[in-house]
Write a structure and sequence with these properties.
Blueprint: E1 2-6, H1 11-22, E2 26-31, E3 45-48, H2 54-63, E4 67-72, H3 79-84, H4 86-106, E5 111-117, E6 128-129, H5 140-158, E7 162-168, E8 170-172, H6 190-200, E9 204-207, E10 219-220, E11 222-224, H7 225-238, E12 249-254, E13 260-261, H8 262-272, E14 279-282, E15 293-294, H9 298-303, H10 311-328
Parallel strand pairs: 1-2, 1-4, 2-3, 4-5, 5-7, 6-15, 7-12, 8-11, 9-14
Antiparallel strand pairs: 10-13
Helix pairs in contact: 1-7, 4-5, 8-10
Length: about 325
């Protein structure tokens, strides 16, 4: 099997590409290197450019007519940035995705795995969600994912396109072989900021302590990125089977089913490192929400997938990657 991975030079996409190689699936990478890294494309078929570039998509398929599916990871993903620049987020995440799907249909590629997000959900009182939970995106970023899912579903209903939306919870960790990891030196999510605080010897800021959770801090479902990658392999191999019931679009949650608060994440982090990180309380960031975790078994039922790695594993692999990141990525992102 050969697959096209958009955003394949980014954190998730590059890890999925590594898992594909390990599984005997050949990845073809398309990335504009806006946030991705060229180093993550080494030894892999790579096309630099935008997913909305029709002639480029045509060239990819002319060079690789045996591409069987697309894993669509290309997107901007930073919630506060989306609040500050909603136009840029809708242009990059929605408009470009519409153009991509149009180009895929023209080239006869009808299988799409879409990197969606659990941030689209309205969590219940217990902070759990499943695939049928109501949607209530609280940031422009989250709304772009909701809009894309609806857009893809509408297109799939009247074309040969079939779309599987994989709704990620909160990826952490790195490729266990350290081929890839978070490309940003100062990532904005909680674990990345914890590592930055640990490296700098400064307190970690807990943004928001009045959420209606068990300890007042936000709650997340932290899933190891290598487990996420394994879910993509399962989805690629079972893709056609998922649509034998006549469905044209489906969604599957990818999480551990366990909620971890920010304070609990700090406790887990401090159990792994030699020098504990101190904390200080701060106001929530623009677009922050209390959070959620999955209660769904659909991934196990439909994909035969269950996460194998713990939060502590994710912390350890993130720390291992942080130690080698500057050597692996010696120049600034483009």
């Amino acid at each position: 099997m050969k697959v096209l991975i958009t955003g394949g030079a980014g954190y998730i996409g590059s890890t999925v590409a590594s898992a594909c190689i390990d599984a005997g699936i050949e990845p073809v990478i398309l990335d504009n290197l806006g946030t991705g890294r060229r180093e993550f494309t080494a030894g892999r078929s790579f096309y630099e450019g935008d997913i909305a570039d029709g002639p480029l998509i045509d060239r990819v398929f002319a060079d690789h007519p045996d591409i069987a599916a697309v894993v669509h990871c290309a997107a901007l993903i930073v919630v506060p940035d989306s609040v500050a620049d909603p136009v840029g987020y809708y242009r990059n995440n929605v408009s470009a995705s519409l153009e991509l799907v149009n180009h895929l249909l023209r080239n006869g590629c009808h299988r799409v795995l879409f990197s969606s997000s659990a941030s689209i959900y309205q969590a219940g009182d217990d902070f759990t969600v499943d695939e049928d939970s109501p949607h209530a995106p609280q940031s422009p970023y989250a709304r772009t994912k909701t809009v894309c899912e609806g857009m893809f579903a509408d297109i799939a209903a009247s074309t040969p396109l079939r779309v599987l939306s994989l709704r990620y919870f909160n990826p952490i960790g790195a490729d266990p072989q350290l081929r890839t990891g978070l490309q940003l030196p100062r990532p904005s999510h909680a674990l990345g900021m914890l590592i930055s605080a640990h490296e700098a010897g400064v307190p970690f800021g807990i943004t928001g302590v009045d959420w209606p959770t068990r300890d007042g801090t936000g709650i997340r479902d932290y899933v190891h990125v290598w487990d996420l990658a394994a879910a993509h392999i399962a989805a690629l191999t079972r893709f056609d089977h998922l649509f034998t019931d006549g469905a044209t679009s489906r969604a599957i949650n990818l999480g551990t089913g366990t909620g971890t608060t920010v304070r609990e994440l700090v406790e887990a982090f401090n159990e792994v490192v030699d020098t504990p990180v101190k904390t200080e309380e701060r106001a929530p960031r623009p677009g922050d929400v209390a959070g959620a975790y999955t209660r769904s078994d659909r991934a196990a039922q439909d994909l035969g997938w269950r996460p194998q790695k713990s939060v502590a594993d994710g912390i350890r692999d993130s720390l291992r990657w942080a130690e080698v990141r500057e050597d692996r990525l010696p120049v600034s992102p483009q």
